[in-house]
Write a structure and sequence with these properties.
The complex is a heterodimer of chains A (764) and B (158).
Chain A (H helix, E strand, L loop, with lengths): L17 H21 L5 H16 L4 E7 L5 E6 L3 H18 L8 H4 L3 E3 H6 L9 E4 L6 E7 L10 H74 L3 H16 L4 E6 L7 E5 L3 H8 L1 H13 L9 E5 L2 H4 L8 E6 L5 E6 L10 H60 L3 H15 L4 E8 L6 E5 L5 H6 L1 H14 L8 E4 L15 E8 L2 E8 L8 H77 L3 H21 L18 E2 L1 H9 L3 E5 L3 H6 L1 E2 L3 E2 L5 H9 L7 E5 L7 H11 L5 E4 L2 H7 L4 E2 L3
Helix pairs in contact in A: 1-2, 1-6, 2-6, 6-7, 6-11, 7-11, 11-12, 11-15, 12-15
Chain B lengths: L1 H7 L2 H24 L1 H11 L4 H24 L3 H25 L17 H20 L5 H11 L3
Helix pairs in contact in B: 2-4, 2-6, 3-4, 4-5, 5-6
The chains are: A alpha+beta (764), B mainly alpha (158).
Amino acid sequence: MSGDGPEPVPGGPPPLPAETLARKVEQLQTLCGIAQQLVRADTPGELLDIFLPMAMEPLGVAAAYVALCERDTGACLVTERGFGAAAKERLTAGSEALFATYFPAGGETSPAQLAPRVLLGEEAAAEPLFPQGTKAVVTLPPSEGFIGLLGLGAKRSGEAFAKAEIEFLQGLVRGLATALSRTRALITVSRLNDSLTAQNMRLEQTLATMEQARGELDRRSFQLQTLYAASNELSAAIDSETLLVTGLRLVQEAFAAPTGFIVFFDAGRSGPEVAVSDPAPDVERRLADPRFRAAVDRLFSAQGGRAPLNMESLVVADAELLADLPGNVACAALFALDPGSRGLLGLGPREGGADFTRDERRLIASLLAYLMVSLDNARRYETISQLNEDLGRRNQELNRRSFQLKTLYDAGNELSGVLDSDSLLATALRLVVEAFEAAGGYIVLYADGEAAPLVAVNRLGAGIEGRLAGAEARAAVARLFAAAGEHGPGTMESQPVAAGTVLDGLPGETAAAVLFAPDTHTRGLIGLAGRSAASLSREEQRLMASLLAYLMVNLDNAGRFETIARLNTDLERRNEELKRTLDELTSAKVEIGHLQLAKERVLDAVRGGFARLERASLADVGLIVFVSTVLALLFNLTNPAGIELVPRVFFATPPPEVSVAAARAQSAAGKAVIVDARPAEFYAQEHIAGADNLPLTLFDFVYGMKLASLPPDTQFIVYGRTFSRYWDREVAERLKQVGNGNVATLDGGLAAWKAAGLPLAEGQ
Amino acid sequence: MDRFTRLATSPLLSLALRLYLGGLFVSASMYKINYVAEFAAAIASYQIVPYVLVNLMAVVMPWVELTCGLLLLAGVRVRSALALVGAMLTMFTVAIVVNLFRGAPISCGCFHSLEDPISWWSVARDLIWLAMAAHVYRYDRYLHLDRMVFKPLKDIEA
């Protein structure tokens, strides 16, 4: 740091010469002057108008222009001096491109651009957007509100712009920018002021309108209050007459009309309903006159298609039409609840004679609408009341019927269980007396051909029964039946004895009597004490008829039941008999079965026996043989000439046997006698030569003749054995018996002899 | 021819034959029962029956003949009796034929002991009797004592 004089700041501008300083001061003074002038301007236009000559003057240029553009709106303002209108137009037209070139978007933030840009000489001339003759252009430093540039033509002197002049220009432009900002602020304030003024005016207008509306609202409020009151009052009333009177009063009050009337013709009613508030004496009479109806009809038809139909009304103010109506009618309204009903409201002149405005007519219509709704409600209410009454009546009716039906039901229940006539009569009588609230009663039944009637008595003295059983009462009942004649009760029917008939012969307590006939030959009568015939209503008579019908049906049933019971007993008895018969039949059948079986067996035996007769049977053969054998054996046993069944010889020790050769030898030597024991025929046929024939049948004879003479020790050799008879052994046995000890048989017999070839002989 | 057939098959003829056969057998049995020893000898002479049975046969057979003959006469169990008669006749015939072939010198023994020796005539006679028995078996139906007894019983069925 040095102490001698101001030292130039390193890097800073060099110190200026005094001449330069003097010029700068001059420039600044000029600029101050210009700034003072510029403050006077109120709008950018005025500002430019003031600015341009002041800029041209110190520089000595003949022509200049300023182009400005508002950033927000893009509106451009061009002011020129000396360039001419064409240049201005050209600038205006090309302003957008021009500013896009020289104030690129976002460029304003760089500090280099905050300084006004200067284009000189050729540089300015080269830009085709600039007007012809532009020698220098200086851009306005960018600010919030505007972008813009100042263009200068040639100096009058024709010189180029000096550096000092350029600096002056830059200062000038800065001043313009400042002034523009101020102007812009001014303009904004002015605009705000304008808008406030306009708003104020609108508010004033609104206020006026609201005042008007308030008046309207007041009127409406009045009408609504009227309607509200009307609705309140009308809804309180439920009959149409009150409604009409109330409605008329409300209308009169609302419109300050001292006179008026309402007439209402409803469908299904002969005369009109009328409410009148008019001192004139004949108004009410005329309204009630039937001809008035025609006048009302005329009024309706005169309206054509506008005539009210369903819950509609129409206000009529035509004086010609109203002239027919009674009283002094200033305004009339037609109304109809439905196509069948017609109503007319007539109002006399208002106090003060004011006409009915459109609003008021509407109010009349609204009031009538309320009235009609109420009338309709009233009508419905009346209908409902009537229906209610009807319902009540029917309910009562139903109650009565229900009671009667219950009585009948009870009667049915009680009577159907009972099967003997006495109990039936007693039960039925009790039911009748209870149902008819009689002091007492009796039932008596006289059957033709039966001396004693059937009687039941309830709550009456003890003597009644005897009186009813008497001939007098019987005759009285017969008289009553006879008096009824053809109109009397048929079978299973009943008929009350007409009120006023003299009940001679019947017990004195009888106040009402009903005849009934269970069948053609039975006459029945029910008598009630304490209830006269006249006091029996039609319903009660019907109930009585039904009860008696029940009684008769059940009597009939009881009769049938008794018959059935009797028949049942009969049937049981017969069943018993049948069962017995059946048992007998069953046992008989069993017996028959046994007999049948026995018969079958016998027949089988017979058939078997018979069949056996027809053929040879092994059994019969066996039987025959057996019987024969038994007989034979018995006979043989007892027969002296009987024989041994098996010959004794068969079992005896056989005699010694002699061989053929020995026999031949002994015979030839005369030491032995050969005996042929066979029958003579066989002997004759063939025998051993020299043998003697000694057949058994002729033994004694032949032995005596031929052999008895032989010495006792003679050797006898016997032959003649066959398959069927041991002749040899039998004869040998006999020979021994007659005393010969030396007897033998020939071994092998004749066959062995023949086989040995020994001599044979034949013939005697 | 028809007439002959009718005659040949007549039940009356059959009745006659039955009575004849019955009488024949009764009469034949009489001798045999009375002279049983002789009859035994006759049986033995045929040499057909074994020794041990000859006597038994001689005792029983005549009684069988007698019973059958009586049954035929009475008309009781006719067919069974006829079956026995037929069987006996067949037996006799066979025995005669056998002994004829043997040449045995025996008499028949049919009715009594002293008869002519057996011959083919004896065979023919037996065959005729056999035919009669067959006829009776086939056609006889009259005078049956047992049928007469049973008939009413059988009528129960109807």
